[in-house]
Design goal:
Elements: H1 2-7, E1 10-13, H2 21-24, E2 32-37, E3 46-51, H3 57-72, E4 76-79, H4 85-96, E5 100-103, H5 117-125, E6 129-132, H6 144-154, E7 158-162, H7 169-179, E8 183-186, H8 194-204, E9 208-209, H9 213-219, H10 227-237, H11 240-247, E10 254-255, H12 256-263, H13 267-279, E11 283-287, E12 290-293
Parallel strand pairs: 3-4, 3-7, 4-5, 5-6, 7-8, 8-9
Antiparallel strand pairs: 1-2, 2-6, 10-12, 11-12
Helix pairs in contact: 3-4, 6-7, 11-13, 12-13
């Protein structure tokens, strides 16, 4: 039985055509990968979603949501199969329909944590895969994870950190990404929560603020499929003044006065249109007289 399990895992040498192109650019990548299932398609966009194992409900929900929306747009999600944010990233990706991939901190035949066995199997069953630089049978070691993180970031076009304490392994992934020339984004959270400190530090140091999945899709040069709903509402149900104001909005906050200048409508008419659009659920006021398009 043990032998059969090992035979399911293949060794991909660095000189093999199957070896990921995104890893070839870096000298510190492993000479071989041990793979179960598939490897990410180097021709398709990829994003790493990483974060705290002991995450909050907010972190779980956001990791799942961001991964699902990216996956629906065709983005491959890369993570480490750990508890918490990693697991939710994989689950969201599976719901979105694009294969997801896990880089492990032990042999590719060893699911860690063991409780994630069903998720491990589902990743492979749904055309994704797991890989490791360690031979089959290699037990997980704490010091394997920092090295594992360099592969996660290298396989990705950008890295999203969702909840991280001030000293977190996820910040190692972010550091690897920066050294590799990849974009790093962090999800903001409550300023009084320790799980937000790592993300806020990244933002302070210049990481992108991931205030919506559309920001990440834009960074990857993709459009969000879920925006179609709002567009259809606009096309079939808005009067001309509402349409004019709505078309000037996006995910960046714009003031009522700015919108009045852009549309050429009087301030009173612009304010009335914004109120009506807000009631319809198409726009949100996020500050006094500042508006953005709703994401739903």
């Amino acid at each position: 039985m043990e032998r059969k399990r090992e035979e399911e895992i293949r060794c991909v040498e660095k000189n093999s055509p199957e070896y990921p192109e995104k890893l070839r650019c870096f000298d510190d990548m492993p000479e071989r990968l041990y793979v179960k299932g598939k490897l990410p398609d180097s021709e398709r966009p990829s994003a790493a979603i990483v974060g705290a194992r002991m995450c909050s409900p907010y972190g779980r929900i956001q990791a799942f949501h961001y991964a699902k929306m990216l996956s629906e747009a065709g983005v491959q999600i890369i993570s480490g199969l750990a508890w918490g944010i990693d697991s939710e990233g994989h689950k969201g990706a599976l719901e979105g329909g694009t294969p997801t991939f896990a880089v492990l901190g032990g042999g590719a035949d060893i699911c860690y944590p063991r409780q994630n066995r069903a998720l491990y199997q589902r990743i492979i069953r749904e055309q994704g895969g797991v890989c490791s630089e360690y031979p089959p049978g290699t037990q997980v070691r704490k010091y394997f994870f920092p090295a594992r993180n360099r592969i996660i970031s290298a396989l990705s076009d950008l890295v999203l950190v969702v909840e991280a304490r001030e000293k977190s392994g996820s910040l190692i992934t972010a550091q690897w990404a920066l050294e590799q020339g990849k974009s790093v984004f962090a999800l903001p959270g409550p300023v009084n929560e320790s799980l937000s400190q790592g993300c806020h530090r990244l933002i302070y140091d210049g990481a992108g603020i991931a205030f919506s999945p559309e920001i990440l899709l834009r960074e990857l040069g993709l459009k969000c499929k879920n925006k179609i709903k709002s567009t259809q509402k606009n096309e079939i149900g808005l009067a001309s003044d509402l349409n004019l104001v709505y078309s000037c909005l996006d995910l960046r906050p714009k003031s009522r006065d700015f919108l009045s200048q852009e549309t050429g409508l009087p301030t009173e008419k612009t304010a009335s249109a914004l109120t009506e659009l807000e009631v319809m659920g198409l726009v949100r006021e996020i500050g006094r007289h500042y508006y953005v398009k709703s994401q739903n």
